[in-house]
Amino acid sequence: MDSPFGLLAELTYRCPLACPYCSNPVNLAAYCDELATDEWRRVLAEAGDLGVLQCHLSGGEPLLRRDLVELVAHAHDLGLYTNLITSGLGFSRARAGQLRAAGLDHVQVSIQADEPALSDRIAGTPSFQRKIEAMGLVKELGWPLTVNVVLHRQNIDRVGDAVGLAEEAGADRLELANTQYYGWAARNRAGLLPSSAQLAAAEVVVRAARDRLRGRMDIIYVLPDYYSRYPKPCMGGWGTRQLTVTPNGDVLPCPAAHALPLPPASVRQDSLARIWADAPVFTAFRGTDWMPDPCRSCDRRSVDFGGCRCQAFQLTGDAARTDPVCHLSPDHDLIAGAVDAANAGSRADDLPLIPRPHRVRSGSGPAP
Amino acid sequence: MDPTTAVARPGVSDSDRPRLARGVRLTYSRGRQRHVLLRPESVVVLNGSGASILELCDGRRTVAEIVAELGARYRAVPDDEVRQFLARLIARRCVEPAGGRRPADGPGLDADG
């Protein structure tokens, strides 16, 4: 068993945005009882002992945690590389200065489109301008900047303009990630899944931009797995490289794994090291012994690890089946059907999307 | 590595004063007993000589000086290997060549505040 390299610390699921592609759990109310500062400090220390080198601070919107600066300073003192993944809202000059002094290494700012009206519509709140200002502040204070754009049916035609926005913002990295269908995104799949013509056009634009910007800006393009022949090598293998801690202290191999019918493991009951080594949520799909056919006898079993367990469960009700994205999966028609629907000539273009709520009603902790 | 591909990469010249790129950190992983380069979203696990080279990339020493210093320390590190290693990390944007310019204020990450 290897040591994990990265910890995704989902500090809170509260968020000022309401993006319909959000991968947070649909039952947000179950995560109101957030870990206290001391609990997070312990988690970070245990993660460092376990071999974790990078700490990604995410959510929801991590800036909604009043103790964010303290947690960054603690992670930094432990020698962890700290990466803030933010909507940009709440990234004030004062807060940014404190985070810089606390040793924050890197900032990723999301934007929903290059164009204010569309970006604000997808985000569900006026936010475009504040995001641009946050990007400026990241650069001004000397951090490397990553701009994140989640791509889907309603913004992928403008991917070239998104590259232009990132260039203008002085981004060092641009992540163009096709939507992955978990959480709220799964609910909104019909409205979000692009057509194959849209994807083909976007790939031409992205490839040209990558060549043009080589050496200046790295462009990471996350492929849409629904259109792939083989599944993605999810998380680099189950329980191999990464772990996620949710706002209430559940420990998961990936942020979507809360949905799986496995007994939950919590930092409130056990140490991170014991959970990583022994908890069923980590051991169930580690390695290749769990695999059914066609994975079991496939040459690619150590390349893509059977794909995504969460996607298999979501689509087939059995987490131990081959990811239906794989063209060899006996369940592949589940993917083919969704793709056919996305390409049907008769299809309405802008299906209504369900926004995820900003925050849950019984919410603990401070409002934005 | 194939030496012919190294030639085509953005080269390093002897007068460059390489340093870690902004947002990249060199640290030691106790559990793995290896030095590692930490970047947003990735970790590069280094072997012993890689770590020795990078520890000298302080933005002050030139490539020629780094090669000379390593040559004195370990007779077994060939010059070309050092240059190829640096060229690879420059291509991956882990290291900045920083030209012949001498940075005003120290190596690596920009100072806070």
Give the gist of this structure.
By secondary structure, chain A is α/β, with parallel strands linked by helices. In chain A, 34% of the residues lie in helices and 12% in strands.
| Class computed from helices, strands and strand pairing of chain A | alpha/beta
Q: Fraction of residues of chain A in helices? A: 25-40%
Instruction: State the shape of chain A.
Output: globular
Instruction: Note the gap between the termini of chain A.
Output: 41 Å
Characterize the main sheet of chain B. Answer: 3 strands, antiparallel
The greatest interface here is:
A-B, 26 and 19 residues
Describe the structure.
The complex is a heterodimer of chains A (368) and B (113). Chain A has 368 residues and is of the alpha/beta class. Chain A is built from 14 helices and 9 strands. In chain B, 34% of the residues lie in helices and 17% in strands. Chain B has 4 helices and 5 strands, in the order αββββαααβ. In chain B, strand 2 and strand 3 form a beta hairpin. The longest helix of chain B is centred in the last third of the chain and has 13 residues, at 79-91. The chains are: A alpha/beta (368), B alpha+beta (113). The interface between A and B is medium-sized, with 26 and 19 residues.
